[in-house]
Records
---
Amino acid sequence: MRAPTTGGRAGLAQGSVPLAVRMRPTSLDEVAGQQHLLGRGSPLVQLATGTRENPGGVSVILWGPPGTGKTTLAQAIARQSGREFVELSAVTAGVKDVREVMEKALTHRDLYGSTTVLFLDEIHRFSKAQQDALLPGVENGWVILIAATTENPSFSVISPLLSRSLLLTLQPLTDADLGMLVDRAVEDPRGLGGSVVLGDEARSAIVRLSSGDARRALTALEAAASSAVAAQDDPDDDSLDGVDTVPVIDADTVAAAVDRALLRYDRQGDEHYDVISAFIKSVRGSDVDAALHYLARMIEAGEDPRFIARRIIISASEDIGMADPQALPIAVAAAQAVQLIGMPEGRIPLAEAVVYLATAPKSNAAYNGVNAAIADVKAGRLGVVPMHLRDAHYPGAKRLGHGKGYVYSHDAEHGVAEQQYLPDALDGTEYYTPTTNGYEREVGPRLERLRKITRGE
């Protein structure tokens, strides 16, 4: 499919400046998403509308996943306000750089009565000593700090700096936000300037692939546009000789340009459920290689790592259970690690947990046990709580017979006493039947002895 020419290819001839950089908003009005932070009178709006002499804002820490607009917000504030603005990256800057900024900011304040805005990207990469160097300037008002981080500031930013700053949490961009960004980049003179036509399926593919990351969306669009132009200029293709047309980006162009075989993966569609189903079944089936394969597919398709972590926790409880009681703590630790360090490094603890679960002994006995108990409760097989187990602490309880005859387990031999715990209607019911796999080999004989004691057999 080709479309008639509507403009030249100036949008593709922007030098070496990436599309994502060219499309940086010049004001907060152009920012996509994060509307919960951009309401009238919000701290960010006050920073953007302040003046050199009256900054009208407080230091802020922007916390959110990659591509949600942390740098974009900072630069939009700088451009809109026109005030003194200094940008540092914690990857390359050190204490010396911070002190130089502070000295210049103090000079500007004393000579001109203005306050400097310091944007510090990836503040979590600063050591405690480096973050300490920021404190005098923030505390005394020499600078207004806008710090950005992808990691939880509670763990990565020192407490004195946290207490002197306002923590603002950014959310992943919605599909609607990403679609608007892509459409703007196609038409805007700063972007592609109408030099290509973006098909509906290709647009949906880019949005789907981006998973809430604006930078990823614009990078994919730029790569696809270049591929579309290169394909049209192919000297071996003489089908359009003499025809002035605009290259069209379709879904195949996007797939080829971004080198993703998993573009069909839809977070709300069948592929989403098929892959996660295959992942869980591979872990359950102890095929560690297949489990890692499906984990990689989800990661590369941009699946929410929190969703993956939740499924790993469920698998640890449902499929490994008491065969290896360490599976659940390891799964929970992986989920916490992902929350703490973010992606892409989060793939490592996720993979560690997946390998552990896939190679662990399996048992669904605890899972079956609670399901059987719930089935009885739903069916009305309840019975009343035995009198000796009822609460006897409130006034008058003993007169009702509550607690009478209760045997305190710790007073019995081995800490286990002969005593009925289930209601009369369910006395003798067994919900949990351990397997002979893993740790349950030890649980089974112990459980048999415990039941004999408690039942007086």
---
Amino acid sequence: MIPAAVRPLADVRDQVIADWQQEQRAERAAKKAEEIAARLKQGAKAAAQDVATQAGASFAMTSPFTRDAQSVQGLPAEMVAKLFAAKPNDVVTGNTADAQVVTRLKEVIPADPKAADADLAPVRAAVEQGMQNDLVAEFTNALRDKYPVSIHRQRIDQFFASN
């Protein structure tokens, strides 16, 4: 058995330098994202593309998306949720594995359930699953109230331990 020990710097020097550089880049990117977000918040009328270009960042506009989208053109699900909690012209920030993301909500387009392309199947399935779960939980609670159950965890553990 070899006791735990700190590896010599000579063995890990390259990795330490690479990690430090990555950390420094991430910190600079986070500061730049904060600056861009502040500029977008100050000038609600400022063109986001101009702000991004002046800061040396890239600009993209997403197509409209729904609340249940997992990832939208590079926006992680966390950012999608934040955007649905925001109001028009609110600035929302976040990050992906390799980038800082600054977004400004342009507009909220109400969903039209009567539209030909409206896909209500996921909503319907989620509601049905929720109702099923509620019914099973209520039935289980009713049975437990009518027929009390005692679980002897120690006995169960003994039974399975001996076999």
---
Amino acid sequence: MLVIPSFFENKYRGNDNIERSTPFDNGYVLNVLIEREFNVGKEENNAFIIDTKITTSGGTWYTPVDLERSRILGTDRIQKEFGFTQQYDDFLEWDLKF
């Protein structure tokens, strides 16, 4: 079993001298890895392995889109004055292997 936590902050200060989060400022990442091996067969010289990994992290930051202006122009227009002020939900992934 292996548990790997990371806690961090990732910010920048723009030309307007305001400190903001970067897209990578999700605050934490946690990985948990567990593996179990079973000897099988008549002579127990074969192996059956169960392996799992769970990863979770804080949500990525993003810059919101100006929907009204984007519809008028027919292409995405981000709201630069709100750079990286919105955050997606936390991320969770579970892998299981046999």
---
Amino acid sequence: MRDINFYFSGKLFFVLTVTAIVILTGHSVFAQTADSTLVDTLHNQLIYPFRDVTGNPYLDTLNQSPLFLKDPNNIKQEIIYNPKTNSYEFVTKVGDFEYRTPTTLDFEDYQNLQMKRSIEKYWQQSTQTTGTNKGKRLIPKLYIKGKAFEQIFGSNAIDIRPQGSAEISFGVLSNFRDDPSLDVRQRHTTNFDFNEKIQMNVTAKIGTKLTFKAAYNTESSFNFENQLKLRYTGTKDDIIQSIEAGNVSLPLNSTLITGAQSLFGVKTKLQFGKTSVTAVFSQQQSETKNITVQNGAQQNSFKLTPLDYEDNRHFFISQFFRDHYEKALSTLPIISSDVNITKIEVWVTNIGPATEENRNIIAFTDLAEGKQKEIFNKYVHALPNGVIPTNNSNDLIQRMDTAQLRNINSVSTYLTGDPLGIGRNNYFVSGQDFVKLETARRLKPSEYTVNKKLGFISLNTTLNQDQVLAVAVQYTVIGHDSVFQIG
């Protein structure tokens, strides 16, 4: 078995064997042979036409795309000035070989080309140095005219300073596993790998009173590390001293009542003469825990539900007992149940060595189910007066040959055939409708407990996922003289 992993991310690699120079156009494909003649090899139009590099630097900049690979390092471009014609000649070489026709630009076109390159270089440098040097900013200050704006916010200037970075990586992960036990389609899997990283910090000021701060990082360990805060600050003579929205805190100087941290909401501070009022309406994003250490050990209180540790241990003998469970417990401490279990045998799949209590058994899912809606197999039918669960609650056993059921060697073939005589096979599925257990182990009474009134058993140990539990039981019902039996 071999595991072969391929990972491609961000780059494309090609291996080319050059035997002829191929010229691709939007209409045809030509190959240049040794006698310098062009031979039309394809007359059909290309599905995805593209333009080849012409060697003209001005035209080639108009056909740029991130999907096109850059020229290799062995391709050099030289610029030769011709003083007679006042023009510039662009020559593209591979070593000493000129593999493209030289391109000539006059002085005006060359000047426009250089101007375009200078502007692009300037914007690239400005973007990279934004916020690093004083005076170089991505967003300049804005000034709003009007006295009303200045009186509300304290100044007429708006200052926004964003900082951060964004990174996106995209790749393809291909995994090939040469495992004969797997299906052919499962041996080779291909998945896309897409990751993004964002780190952003924004500080904005509107005048001198309103401040906005935001910090967001996709790689932060906790949510409260991403901050968002809007604050308005008044003067010392204003009633509204401050209004905060977003991530706020409420520190208190008292030792009896501690303040809350990591709050998200609205906080206001008002001043009425010498009276100060602070109000907070928020949601707490943090949690406080108390740890008690005694004798060098930490003590914690925890709560567990029965489902957390009692899985696969408690089983009802039949659906009949499950349907009457709540009704029987409605008059506690008296259990109102007419059932009394007199004898029970519990069998499980033996996963250890053989013991004295080993038998070959056949367990049925629908045995003793007397309601049609509770019978799993649609070919088994409930019988009249089969509400109390017994072997005669449905026609599962009555329509079968008992001698065939007791032959452990051929019982599986018999059950997956046509045991009910309806003219078709495989309507009894092994592991779903029945289970054949060879050398099943009978549990000792000390290995389980049975509630004789409510009709359920509780195992001392958890039943494994690959084990089968089978039950045979006899019980009596108040008002009936006969003994009812299941199994």
